[in-house]
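job 3f2a | input accepted
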Amino acid sequence: MTRSILHVDLDAFFCSVEELLDPKLKGKAFVVGGRPEGRGVVASASYAARKFGIRSAMPMAQAVRLCPQLIVVRPRHGVYSEYSDQVMEYLRDSVPVAEQISIDEAFLDASDDPRGGQVAASEMQAAIRDRFGLPTSWGVAANKLVAKIATEVGKPSGLIAVPPGSEADFLAPLPVSMLWGVGPKAELRLAELDIRTIGDLTRLSDARLSALFGDWGTELAARARGQDDRPVQDWYEPRSLSSEQTFTKDLASEEKLRHSMRQMSERVGGRLRQDRLAGSTVRIKLRWHDFTTITRQMRLDQPTDQDGEIFTAAWALFRKNWRRGRAVRLLGVGVSELSPPMRQLELFDRAWEQDRKLLQAIDSLREKYGSSVLTRAGDLKAERED
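job 3f2a | predicted structure (386 res):
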């Protein structure tokens, strides 16, 4: 039986909710995010704002330079979660299998739905608009990969169905950057090879792609042909993973704090890999000796499940918010905005691939012999000084 996979995306979700709460914002160039005078970033941009080149994760100061009349709205994450929960509950009641992948996205398996995928998507799109006042974009295809790309092609508020067997033809004229796993640097290098569309990419042999991308080459070739056999999984993914430690004695040593943060980063990375997840935002939690507690976060260029990348971001946040010698009572590291680990590929950069293989080996050893089977040399020194 041919599968019928649906992908739904709540269009400019945070902004759409804000328009419901304040109709005066409709049609205006506005964003949801932090203040421009600080280190704020754009969490969501209205489609009117996007016409100025404003995008999510852009520094707010840059967004204001692009559009001086831009309206900045402070985020209300609790409200957004309430709307998301209502929509996702409706989706789970509407199809046999639903997999929420973020606050505003989900995959649905409508293979057993007698209405057929396209009709089911159309009816749910109308229902979400009528019940909740929220616009959505939909993609319908035989697999997750093509369904999600179809959603992107149809934004905003579109519905595109790709007939089974026509996946490669549908993808062929699209920019190669729309293919999962092709990052900006890879896109530039592919352009040097005169590879600008997904169809162009299929002209490269599997052997050539393997030479360029290493182990990812075979998978990338399959994606370019529109092949993807991942199932829609009817389970809830956690919104974040974290590790924290309250010290028995307040800690002021930079070396010991760094040691603790690295250990926490490794625990979080290991859990992400175990659950086959990756996160786009790294955050830290700090509690001082007087019990004052702060949290800080940083959005990454792409999702990660790598210990080193988590630690590098967390340590950078720590250094910005810690004064040398100040005692720390509690330290925590977390990763949020979780999704399946889909890495953007960078041509001729094998460092990440080597790190991935090393971590796989470490994970296997720790699973077999326990978490303490391997210890960093630098950590041994920190432990001896405790």
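job 3f2a | The first helix runs from residue 13 to 21.
job 3f2a | closed
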